[in-house]
Automatic annotation (TrEMBL), chains A, B:
Cofactor(s) of this protein: FAD
This protein's name: FAD-dependent oxidoreductase
Pfam families according to UniProt: Amino_oxidase
The Amine oxidase domain, residue ranges: 14-453
Taxonomic source organism: Dietzia cercidiphylli
Keyword Ribosomal protein: no
C-alpha cells in the first residue's frame, strides 16, 4: 500500500520542514518522513524539572542569519540575547585568567592570533562560497590541512593551538582534519550575499553567530512547523530505499511506502549514502557524501539553583587552550527567566576522541572540573547534569556538521547539490552561507522548494 | 525462522572465506553470508570469449605476501610471473620515453624522487605498523597531508607529482587525501614481521607487490574455498542488522536470520557502519569506520589479438605523470597462455574524479589514447574493451582500500580492530601488514579465526 503526494521530503529537521512549508504555501501536497520519533533534527530541547527548556543541540543565532530569523518571526518565535555580561575566563595549563571580548589575553599567542585572523580574513575573502574550487590556488590550498596552513607563517604554536580550540567547537574536529580550502570556504560562508563571511562573526558572541538564543528552545521552530503540517509529517519512518524514475519516485520506509512526483532528501550526506538507491547514486556523488563524515561533538550541561557566577562578574563563558580538559569552550546557558543557572560545555574534536570512550561518571567529573576552572568550585556541586553525544545519535552520527578533509573539495565538491532527476538535496550541509548552521538548513530547504517548484512546473 | 552455527561470517571475500576455512578446520560450524551473488569480494575474474580469464579486481601477489601465497598453495592454485620483459614507457606531457626498472627517466624529477624515496624509507622505518600513533612525532605527522610531507624538503614539484601518480594506483587517491602518518604506516606495512616494509616493494614489479599473478585469476582462490565450504556459504544475503548479546549474536539478512555464538564482520569498515547494530557500535568505532572511505578507482582493460607490444621490446607497462591522461599506470595483463594480448590501466584518485563522470565512450577513447602513448597507435583498435569501476560497486564503494585523512589515525586509529564482545573484525583494512591487499585480507581472516577460537574456548 502506498500514498501519493507531489513531493516526499526525507527528514523533519529545519531543512525538511522549511521545504515542506514552502511547498504547501505554493499549493503542493507533501509528506515528510522522519526516522526519529520527533522533529527538529540536530535541534533538541531538553526539558528541565520545572518545565523550562534548554537546548541539547544547535541553539545560537546571530546577525546575517536572516533566513532562520525570518522563519522564526513568521512562526511567532522570539529570540533573546545570550548572556554576555561580565568577564570571560581563559584557561591554559594551570592558570585561569579573566578577560573581556573575544580574544583571550595570551600575550605569547596574541601576535599569532592577530596574524592568523588577518590571514584567514584575507584568504577567505578570496574564496567564492559557491565554487571554492575556482580559487586560482585551489589545488594547493586543498592539498594541505587547515593545521598546516595555519602553522605556515605562524610565529609559535600558541596561536595555532588556540584557533584550533575555537574551531573544535565550531567544527567538532581539529584543524588537522579539515582541508585548508574547506576551512577558508567555511569562514567565507559565515555571512550572507551582502556581508562577507568572517571568523569574528563565526566565533563571536556579541555581533556573532552566538549572539542570540531562541525563547522556548530552538527545537520549537521545527515543532511549530510540524504542527502546521499536521498529518503530512510521519515520525518513526526511517527511509531504507528510494526508487527514482522518469515518472516519479517511491520512498520506502519502515512505516510504509510513499510515492511522489519529486523527493527532497535532507538526511546528512553521509547517511543519505546509506539509503538503497535505485538506480544507484552516481559513484562520484556517493564518493563525496561518504567523505562528508561529521565532526565528533557532544554537549555537556550542568544545572545550578541560580547562575551564581553572574554575581562574581563572570559571563560564564570560558575558552580552554591545550586540550588538557574535555571542554574546549563553555557558555552560560541559563533560560531567559534567569534560573536555574546552566553552564554548557562543548566536548569536540580531539577532546571528544579522548573523553567520549570514558565512563560517563569519569567524564562528567572532568567536565565539572573544567567548569570549576572558569566559575570556581561551586561548579562541582550542580543540582543536575546531562550530556548529549551527537556522534552516538543514529540518525546524525556526529556534530555539528560535515568536515571535508584535504583533496575532496576540488575533486568532488561540485557534486554536493547536484539534483539527480527528481531527487533534490537539502540540509545544513547543502548551503553556501552558514553551511552546517540552522540558517544554512533553512536556506537549503527554501532553495530545494524553489527548485522542486521550478522543476515540476511542466508536470501534468 | 533462524539457523544456528558457532560462527557467522559476514562477507565471502578472501578474509571471510579464510576465517571460515580455519574455523571449519578447527571443528567449528560456520555460515558465511555474502551480499553479492558471487564470492571473492574485491577479486573478480572477467571471462574472455575463449573462456580464459583476466582480473577486473585485485590481482597481483609478491614477496612477503606469504599468507595469500600459502593459502593459494594449500588450494592447489599456482602463480606465474607478471610480464616484465622489455622497456617500460614514461609519459609526461607530449613526450613518451622508454626506460628499464622502476624509476622513470625524468632528469628534473630524479633528485626529488631519490630524496623522497630516502625520506619515505627512513620515516616509514620509524613507524610501528601495529601502533603508528605511538610514533614520537605522531601528532605532527598526522596533522598534515602526505602531499604536504612530500613537498617539504622537495627540490621541485616534479618528484612529488610522480610519487603522487604511483600512489594514485596503490591508493586510489592523491597524496593530498592521506595523512602523512597514514601514508608512512602504509609503506611500513609493505613487508612482514621479518622484512621491513618499503616503497620499492609496494610499487615494484620484479621483487615487489606486482611480481606475480594467479593462474586462473585471483578470484579462483575464493571460489575454491567456497566450493569446499559448500552449503555454509549463502549468496545474495546482504546483512541489514546485527544483534549482539552476552549469549550470542543474530545476523539478519535479506535471505533470513542466522544465530551464532560469535560473528566475524569482514565488510569494508565504511559499509560495516551502515549495518543496524543492536546495541549500537561504540560512537568512536563508528566515527573511525565512517572516516575509512575507500579510494576511487577503476580498472580499464583493452583486448588485442596478441600482445603486439612485446614484439617491439615493450613490457606493456607505462607510468603517466601530470594527470593529463585518465590512466595513471598500466600493465600487460595478458593471460599466461600468451594470447589474447591485454592492456590494463588504473584510473585512480584525481583521474577517476575527472573521468568517471564522463560518458563511457569518451572515457574509453581517452583510455585507449593513453595506451597508445605507451605501445603505439595499434592500441586504438582493440578487439574488446571492458571497465570495472569499484567505486560504483554497491558492496565495496571504492578501491582498492581505505584512505585515512589527517587527524584520524592518532585520535581514532586504535579502535580499528577492537572486538565488541562477540563481534570480531576482519577484512583487508584490518591488517597491519599489507593492509588493503589480498595478503592483508588473508592475514586478517586467520587472525579473526584465532581470536574467535580463543574467545569461545570457554563457551559450553
Amino acid at each position: 500500500m502506498s500514498t501519493t503526494v507531489d513531493t516526499v521530503v526525507v527528514g523533519a529537521g529545519l531543512a525538511g520542514l522549511t521545504a515542506a512549508r514552502r511547498l504547501v504555501e505554493a499549493g503542493r501536497t507533501v509528506r515528510v518522513l522522519e526516522a526519529r520519533d520527533r522533529v527538529g533534527g540536530r535541534t533538541l530541547n531538553h526539558v528541565l524539572d520545572d518545565g523550562q527548556v534548554v537546548e541539547a543541540g544547535g541553539q545560537f543565532v546571530g546577525p546575517t542569519q536572516d533566513h532562520v530569523l525570518g522563519l522564526a518571526a513568521e512562526l511567532g518565535v522570539t529570540t533573546f540575547p545570550a548572556h554576555t555580561v561580565g568577564d570571560t575566563v581563559y584557561v591554559h595549563g594551570s592558570r585561569s585568567r579573566r578577560f573581556r571580548g573575544d580574544i583571550p589575553p595570551d600575550r605569547l599567542a596574541l601576535p599569532d592570533i592577530a596574524l592568523a585572523t588577518t590571514r584567514l580574513a584575507r584568504a577567505s575573502g578570496e574564496v567564492d562560497v559557491a565554487a571554492p574550487w575556482e580559487h586560482p590556488d585551489a589545488g594547493r590550498l586543498d592539498a594541505q590541512s587547515l593545521a598546516t596552513w595555519l602553522r605556515r607563517g605562524a610565529i609559535g604554536a600558541g596561536g595555532v593551538e588556540l584557533i584550533d580550540t575555537l574551531l573544535g567547537s565550531a567544527f567538532g574536529a581539529a584543524a588537522s582534519e579539515a582541508s585548508a580550502l574547506y576551512g577558508l570556504a567555511y569562514v567565507a560562508g559565515a555571512g550572507d550575499e551582502i556581508h562577507p563571511g568572517s571568523l569574528d562573526r563565526m566565533i563571536g558572541v556579541a555581533g556573532g553567530a552566538q549572539e542570540s538564543r531562541v525563547v522556548g528552545g530552538s527545537q520549537v521552530i521545527s515543532q511549530r512547523m510540524a504542527e502546521e503540517l499536521g498529518d503530512s509529517v510521519t515520525l518513526g519512518a526511517p527511509v531504507r530505499r528510494i526508487e527514482h524514475r522518469a515518472t516519479g519516485v517511491t520512498v520506502t520506509t519502515d512505516a510504509g511506502s510513499f510515492d511522489g512526483e519529486e523527493v527532497i532528501v535532507t538526511a546528512p550526506p553521509h547517511l543519505a549514502a546509506e539509503i538503497e538507491w535505485s538506480p544507484s547514486l552516481p559513484a562520484h556523488q556517493d564518493a563525496l557524501f561518504r567523505r562528508m563524515a561529521f565532526g565528533t561533538l557532544m554537549k555537556c550541561e550542568a544545572i545550578y539553583e541560580r547562575p551564581f557566577w553572574r554575581e562574581d562578574g563572570l559571563s560564564g563563558q570560558g575558552v580552554f587552550r591545550g586540550g588538557g580538559t574535555p571542554v574546549c569552550s563553555m557558555f552560560d546557558n541559563t533560560p531567559p527567566s534567569g534560573s536555574p543557572g546552566i553552564l554548557m560545555g562543548f566536548v569536540g574534536g580531539a577532546g571528544w576522541r579522548k573523553w567520549a570512550p570514558r565512563p560517563a561518571r569519569e567524564r562528567g567529573g572532568a567536565v565539572l572540573q573544567s567548569f570549576a576552572r572558569v566559575v570556581g568550585p561551586a561548579a562541582l556541586a550542580p543540582v543536575g547534569y546531562f550530556e548529549k553525544d551527537w556522534t552516538a545519535e543514529r540518525w546524525t552520527r556526529g556534530g555539528p556538521t560535515a568536515v571535508l578533509g584535504p583533496g575532496v573539495l576540488t575533486t568532488l565538491g561540485q557534486w554536493r547539490d547536484r539534483p539527480l532527476g527528481r531527487v533534490h538535496w537539502a540540509g545544513a550541509e547543502h548551503s553556501d552561507y552558514w553551511n552546517g548552521y540552522m540558517d544554512g538548513a533553512v536556506r537549503s530547504g527554501e532553495a530545494a522548494a524553489r527548485a522542486v517548484i521550478a522543476h515540476s512546473g511542466g508536470h501534468p
